[in-house]
Write a structure and sequence with these properties.
Elements: E1 3-9, E2 12-18, E3 22-28, E4 31-36, E5 41-44, H1 47-54, E6 77-80, H2 95-108, E7 117-120, E8 128-132, E9 136-140, H3 146-158, E10 168-170, E11 178-179
Parallel strand pairs: 3-6, 6-7, 9-10
Antiparallel strand pairs: 1-2, 3-4, 4-5, 7-8, 8-9, 10-11
Helix pairs in contact: 2-3
Amino acid sequence: LPTVNFSRDGHVLVVRIKEATLESLWQQGSARYWLSSDGVLIREVTPDEWTSLREPPALLGPTMDGSILPPPAKAHLFISLERSAPLVGAQRMDAAALQGAQTFLMALRALFPDADTIEYDRAWSGWMQVRFQNTSLILFDPLHDPLAQFERVKGLMRQQVLPEHFEYVDVRFEDHIYYR
C-alpha cells in the first residue's frame, strides 16, 4: 500500500512517500480493480481503462527503420473465483505469488499468445490456473519455480502433445505431469 512517513532531521521535516505500483488487473464477478505489485487491490478500473488495457489499439505499419511493430500486450488479468466481496486496500495475494504467476504467464505466452488470464482462489492452497482458448487449463504453483513448470509444458509440446487437446494439464509437480 502507499505509505507516507514523516521524520525530523534537525530543523528539517522529512516526508517520504512510497506509491503503490500498478501491476495487473483483478476481476471478481463484475467488479474490476488495479492490483499492486504487493498483491493489494488499489482502486476500481473504469470501463474506458478496462477497454484500453484488455483490448489495446493495434499499431499499424512499419517503423521508420522498416521493422514491423509487435502487437501490444494485454495487461495480465487475475480472475478471482472467491465468493467474498473484494475491498479496495485488501491483500488478495502475496507479492511472491504475484511475481511467480506473472513469470509463468509471460513464459507461457511464448507458446500460447492468447494466454493472458489466471484464475485464482485462495482456498486452492496457492495454486493457480491459466485458461486459454476457452477450454483448456494449465494448473501451476506460482511459489515453486514457475520457469521449471513452464519447461514441463514445453516438454509436452516437444512430444507434440498440445494442451488445448486436453481438459487440463497439471505441471505443479517436479517429477511428473498430469493431464486429462
